[in-house]
Design a protein that fits this description.
25% of the residues lie in helices and 24% in strands. By secondary structure, the chain is of the alpha+beta class. Its cofactor is FAD; [4Fe-4S] cluster.
Length: 559
Amino acid sequence: MERFADEADVLIVGGGPSGLSAAIKLKQLATSAGKDLRVCLVEKSAEMGGHTLSGACLEPRALNELFPNWKELGAPVTQEVTGDKFYFLTEKSRIPIPLLPGMPMQNHGNYIIRLGKLVKWLAEQAESLGVELYPGTAASEVLYHEDGSVKGVATNDVGIAKDGSPKDSFQRGMELHAKVTLFGEGCHGHLAKTLFKKFNLRENCDPQLYGIGVKELWEVDPALHKPGLVEHTVGWPLDRNTYGGSFLYHLNDEGAPLVSVGVVVGLDYTNPYLSPFLELQKFKTHPGNIKLFQNGKRIAYGARALNEGGFQSIPKLTFPGGCLIGCSPGFLNLPKIKGIHNAMKSGMVAAEAVYETLTDENAASKSKTKGFDPISYEEKMKASWTWSELKSVRNVRSSFHTSLGLYGGMLYTGVVYYILRGKEPYTGHIKDADHKSLQPINDCKPISYPKPDNVVTFDLLSSVALTGTNHDHDEPPHLTLRDDSVPMAKNFAIYGGPEQRFCPAGVYEYVEREDGKGHRLQINAQNCIHCKTCDIKDPSQNINWVCPQGGEGPAYNGM
């Protein structure tokens, strides 16, 4: 069966902050100039914002530029930061660290939000401007013109059984063509992976570093609730050689006393016994935290990967027929623990470059390929405040890659960065990708974690149930192995099966073989919450995450 094809001026893959900001900016520019521009956006989640997860503490700079009247328009951005605290944790105590003016962790003027709600609101604004939104539509393949430029994307076929045969519900995917395609899939997007290789976009940058953020949303005792309070910590429960930290954000949401709590762990950690999910459970048991949760109720759970490489890891942003925006290339400001404002800004800047390209009367004759290359996007990004912001903190992450570990990073951030503000005459570099960092399990110490008490700490499967994740049990697997023999021969034999610990959703299990002779890897793909950690951290790079049917995956509500 042939695929039906549709054509737009601009196609955007991904309905997160960057994709929606790009769509909105494009329509704003076209409307102000009286031009007609067809902008289509596809999003794999069943609902806009359904796959969105972040802390989240929003720096409103990009939102101010996109919608100067966002307050009058009713944006769900209402909880201003009222207090800012930073602690170094030991097992039993909290040592306050002063936040001096200009330090990246300062949050004066920022807002605590539920990012999924902001994404829904942005989608409403985009639709009102004439953007065509297609939630529940998964882009599964990049399409190319004969000259090698990007032509658009194809959506995946649906209604296919595990064995590859069509079911009664079978529907052929469709092709979406555009003059320019913007890829804003989020961190470690499965299409962006293929673009990096085809166009060699990572040729002149460092390997990308990643972290995993594991988060819960709680309704707490009103007597302990402090709306607007932001708390960050470093130290316990992580050791000094593991990059990471925690956050506690108090927000008032429609009268409910909510606290967003999470742990972020750098995926360059070395000990295969480490479990990011259990690090969060352990963090909540600290004497300074446990009272907040003892009389509370956990109402949501989720996890996602995030880019940590920063300035040195930004790839080439454009290619014939398209460009990368948001977390696809990676614009997170790691010491700030913020990326929403930069993701939005990248989408807006890309929109300006794409609009200029498309409205140039000589665009077709200037272009060497059928797919237009918005070359000015990269130039405009380098002239933007996002670029200068990321450049100023470029050495923070690499400063942790010394024998001092955490202490070296804190020393750099607290002294060198505070004095020089990124003007030091050198740039630290990252040599290896995260999947190369694990040490053999026999060389590492087991990590002790608390047993779930179902009051403050919980087991993994009951947590996954809160994500609302869902996948058809009878469909081709979206978690594939390049070689079925590798999990037992390498991952289990050398590293003790780290998949079963780094996955925050219980997707991977090493179970006893039916014949009782050893173990085998069992993949519970229906549990997947689309965090991509397995694709990033697998030490053998044997796991390949591809997109399942549109509308599947987690169903986050304002995470």
